[in-house]
Amino acid sequence: MDTIYAPATAPGRAGVGILRVSGPQVTEIIDYFCSFPVSERVATLRKLTDGPGGDFIDEALILRFSAGASFTGEDVVEFQHHGSLAVSQRLQQILAMRPGVRLAERGEFTRRAVENGRLDLIQAEGLLDLIEADTEMQRRQALEVFGGGLSSLAKEWREQLLRAIALVEATIDFSEEEIPSGLEDQVSAILTSLIAAIDKQLAGASAAQRVREGFEVAIVGRPNVGKSTLLNALGRREIALTSDIAGTTRDVIEVPLQIEGQLVNILDTAGLRSAEDRVEQMGVDLARRRANAADLRIFLLAPGQDHIDENAGVMVHQDDIVLQGQDDDGSRGGVSGRTGAGLDSLLNEIGLRAAQCQREASFVIRDRQRIKLETGLKALHAAQSGLGEIDIELVAEDLRHCSVALDGLIGYIGPESILGEIFSSFCIGK
């Protein structure tokens, strides 16, 4: 296997830059750059030169890890040099000229960690989410998955499933008269437990996705009720055009906010009405679709309006927020984007709704994971319904289908194309 290298820090000038190297030539590379030995797992300050007696390149802290005790499971070294583009480029130029040494592909360090058993595929996906986390809730969720939350469950399910398969296989080896009593009941109990556990994780998958991608809140109401002004106030900048001309907003404008450590995407939508202008009507139709698909809706009522328009085409849910719009002095208990009246209270309400969604989240953070679990669950239901009614060999086959799904979830097996897609999302140095 080639030895790979890549910067592990973002390109550009900085106080420190890190160059990471992994593979069989790590020892030779250290000896080439350094005149003195470097101990394992100890930060060692060394001068880097272009070979023994060569030009002085930089002074760097060096961290060395042996195979089996490193992130990738291979020999690894990190050169923590001064964050100069010239230093980084010079070190990489030297490495690129060595036979069997090349620049790493995107995510290749993490891929080698998976291939060498240091991480499983679920943990690798959690690591990617941790790197990309922007909010506190995203960080916590990613750490739970990276730390093995879903992996541990999947491995427990796999062990239970193998037990069920063993019991079913045992019944195949006996004639009907010789089958030990209670085997079928044991298999049924295992399947019932597995189905309940997987169902629970799938039930929280949508909430987990909201933590990862953002809790979506749509501002809806009649034209000129103050929706765009409210969006600008929440975003604290001029994002949407505002005017006293009805129908100014014709598209959905999205603004990401952090509220109580959670990512919340606020949507400004077109005013709900029957429009003669074809383009405006397209915007109204889009507003209805996005509002109905959102996690929460803020209905702004116009002055003198005391209820939501029943024919507006947007469904009202129990947790939705209904407020008087353009309540500049706060006398109606509503909200105003122009004066800021009621804004703090509104943000607090949004934060409470988003927090409730976060509490319902499971460890299933990606569509790939959800699909694998749904496939396995379908096979379990088929096996459960077949117990005592159809050929036991078919039950065994259903259980094997579930086992394959769980193996693919963890990463024990998986098409090369799927692995390539996952790791291509990582940066070069990870």
Structure report:
By secondary structure, this protein is an alpha/beta fold. The protein is 45% helix and 17% strand. The protein is built from 14 helices and eleven strands. It has helices at 26-33, 85-96, 108-115, 121-132, 136-146, 149-172, 183-203, 205-213, 227-235, 278-293, 343-359, 367-386, 392-410, 416-423; strands spanning 3-7, 14-22, 44-49, 56-65, 76-83, 101-103, 215-221, 253-259, 262-268, 296-301, 321-324. It has a six-stranded mixed β-sheet with strand order 3-4-5-2-1-6, with helices on one face. β1 and β2 (14-22) form a beta hairpin. α6 packs antiparallel against α13 (392-410). The model has no long low-confidence stretch (mean pLDDT 85).
Quick structural summary:
The protein is α/β, with parallel strands linked by helices and 430 residues long. The protein has helices spanning 26-33, 85-96, 108-115, 121-132, 136-146, 149-172, 183-203, 205-213, 227-235, 278-293, 343-359, 367-386, 392-410, 416-423; strands at residues 3-7, 14-22, 44-49, 56-65, 76-83, 101-103, 215-221, 253-259, 262-268, 296-301, 321-324. It has three domains: 3-115, Gyrase A, domain 2 (2-Layer Sandwich); 122-204 and 365-411, tRNA modification GTPase MnmE domain 2 (Four Helix Bundle (Hemerythrin (Met), subunit A), Up-down Bundle), CATH 1.20.120.430; 220-356, P-loop containing nucleotide triphosphate hydrolases (Rossmann fold).
